[in-house]
Fold each of these.
Amino acid sequence: MNIAFDCERMKYPHTGLFEYCHHLGLALKDSAALHDHIKYYLRDGDQQYFDPASEFLVRKVLHKFIFPNYSKVDLWHITHQTSVYVPKSDKIKKVLTIHDLNFLYEEKPAWKQKNYLQKHQRNIDRADHIVAISNFTKNDILKYLHTDGKPITVIYNGCADVPVLKDLKPSYQPSAPFLFALGTVNAKKNFHVLIPLLVNNDMELIISGRIDPAYQQKIMDEAQKYNVTSRVKVTGPVSDQDKAWYFKNCEAFLFPSLAEGFGIPPIEAMRFGKPTFLSRTTSLPEIGGTAAYYFDNYDPEHMQKVFRDGMNDYQQKQPAADIIKHASQFNWETSAAAYWKVYKETLTK
């Protein structure tokens, strides 16, 4: 089998799609059978993220309008649901991964939701097999889009281990016990609701990820309202090593996101056995299971109670080993094996 694996979205570092393409792409190559080949489709310059001996297909902007005829590709894996880089040939089978329909939960106007649904439908119509990264996403697909009986498989994302380097310190090192939040710093992630958790204690809150400046200002406005500005640090993107240090040393991990198709950061935190607090929305209860604590709403008093009760529960039960065990089921080797199975099934139909 010759599989083209679309890594076009790796042009956006420090995002979930970058991590998905990078780690799944590596795992697919590592687990390929003798006569199976992965060809990475990406822009020139992004080959650095893979073994230089790998096979590459260089993405060019012109491909949006005139897509090349790749004669030595049996199957094209469309790794992003609205990608415009899709072969037109019916001779090439297509697997489409849909990560989420988050726009349905983001208070977007009806015309914009309709436009997004049409873009998703376009690629569903081209696909031979659909993959959803959670049962929540699968149910959304079946509810809002037309699959016409095409097979749809749930394959969970993996989570890569990031070793903590013993002598490494992050670029910003807190001076007090701290809470950690990670993700693109935008309205969907809902980080501003975490500020009241700093009331009546001396902890810091560190938020890391690619920053939307307008939303960062909303976070800091909320911090000023509670008079905790000096204890809120929005770092911007961080290295894997800095991220691992924050996971290892934080008191708890917080992820109050409003819309997630999966949610890798909570699993990363759980790999360190940390108490993990999630919003009870979209896919997060499916991913966190009974190993996480949940905010049912964002009323400050409710969130303070959930956090206080959760930390007390964590101290009493010492469940770190169980949390780590829960997180270990999400790994890229398992994901890659499931994708190879889908590829083979799609090519034999």
Amino acid sequence: MSRAGLRSRVVAFVAVSLVCVAGAGAYAAQALAERRDELAAPPRSPQVAADRYAGEPRLVFRNTEIGASFGLVASVPLEDPRAPRAVSDVACDRVDATARVVSCLRTERGVVTKYAWLELAADLAQRRRAPLTGTPSRTRLSPDGRLASSTVFVAGHAYMQVGFSTATVVRRVGGGSLGNLEDFGLVVDGRRVAPRDRNVWGVTFADDDRTFYATVATGGVPYLVRGDLEERTLTSVQPGAECPSLSPDGSRVAYKIDRDPGAGTDWTLGVLDLDSGRTTRLDVGPSSVDDQAEWLDDETLLYGLARTGAPGETDVWSLGTRPGSEPRLYLRDAWSPSVVTGTTGTTGRSS
């Protein structure tokens, strides 16, 4: 072979070798990048069939794991909230559940964004749908699942200069509306009043299908009120209480307390004993709790908490109602917790 031919073969071999090395390097770099992405991505909870925990004591909630199942209704067993979560195909912004019925507020996006309240069966099959007049905020069912409330943020109230405006409606499950609570008679400190700037939100029901508690704000002051569906009245209990939640035994009300009255952006939790009128102020740490608490049991509250600096990412925390209790992470990537302790053979949250 001539010297020129040998030189050509060497050059060709080197060129092929460089291509192979470059290809291997690119493959290795791609594999390393994929591995880094995998390690950096938050772990995903294992999932099981949507009806896996039907009929069991369970926590029903809005799944907020980033991914395809974000915003879908999910559940975990109360005895083991770290178990694989059962994720449905039903999307809700806020959800509340009893053993027989589920209340769902949701945003329906399209050319024109719409908002709706859905009455769902225990298996999440839709029974009824009603339009909402604004962005979903709160929903609650009565203990026996016969009443449902919905609160939304709305625009267009002439008196609103700053802040927000709400519309809160109570419905009979399987029936019609009992009306907007702003139309109920309002009694504050023993006097019948009719302020134009009233807002009502955060309903929680007693077990008689008549009595409820809520927040009414007027003149810049939020009041805890006791409502009567038959008399169509709202009567103030005390000022400085927002988003109440009645305990399972009906003796106490948990609610948000503004740590800086007037600011309206920094809340902790308190528990009011209805008989004595005494409030136990709880410590949620530096975080601000902007949620309507849920009672896990007679001595423990659950609430949703947004992660600092992570828009859309939320967790559910627990907190004992005794002084000195410390908040604990209960369930990651969750929102709008609802405790269901009964089965489909019972009529309420608990059996």
Amino acid sequence: MANPTVCVLALGGTIASASDGKGGVLPNLDAATLLAAVPGLDSSGVEVSASTFRSVSSASLTLDDLAQLSDLIAAEAPRHDGIVITQGTDTLEESSFYLDLVTDPAVPLVLTGAMRNPTLAGPDGPANLLAAIQVATNEQARGLGALVVFNDEIHAARSVRKAHTTSTAAFVSPDAGPLGRVSENVVRLHRRLSPAPTIRPVTPTPPANVAVVTTYLGDDGGVLDAIDERYQGLVIAGLGGGHVPGPLLDRIDRLTARMPVVIASRTGAGPILRTTYSFPGSDRDLARRGLISAGSLDPYKSRVLLHLLLASGADRATFADTFEQLS
């Protein structure tokens, strides 16, 4: 039997950072250098090819970058048993979900990175990369969609979040928990989930600029006045189970008349309520006003999904149905 093959595509980030000579670090290590730092990879029996797609902080990645990356993944997938993406952690939860929605789940796709850069004692990048490669070559990972492997835990892209600024255990799945773990170089999956629906943007791509606005105590709604013709969709990071202060309602009504508006929760875990409260700005009231429930998706994943639905030319009924499917 031939050795399994993996394609590693590097995008930069902490895992690829080195000294800038001025006391800081920046992403300037290429994919081959990342692989050379992984103990035991040469004897793993996996044939790994590597390519540097970007060398940037993930804070500087764009949706256009991800669209180009998805094209590259589609080209590489038929030639490999798995694909691994390395990138910065700041936006990894969003990019993994984007790729989950646009790539074929037949070939395992795993994203990873690092919290401790290579200039520090105990950098976690090599261990994370090795575990990601082990997951990407495991038959159990087929059909699961995009996965995030960090700190030996395997997370689904749709549920994973970065929950700490510096911890090597920064990535968690608050509602669902991890799908499994890598232990003693063995991939152990405890549960499976159905893959996300695949969304294909149409060509030429319609405008799909989506804003995220967070509500807060005493919010007067004035920031919603800035949601002008530059935006084609809006995600509101609401209070609690999906509530907004009363002063926002008139502006929300005007916005829902011309664009899809999604209500998510700023809390970081738990679903949007649907039938509990009836005060102005409550879950029942917002549903009556035509807002789309994000379900259990956080505001940032909701933005990614709404962007892709707009870019695919979907109608409002499809928006609601797709959010419901992923909840």
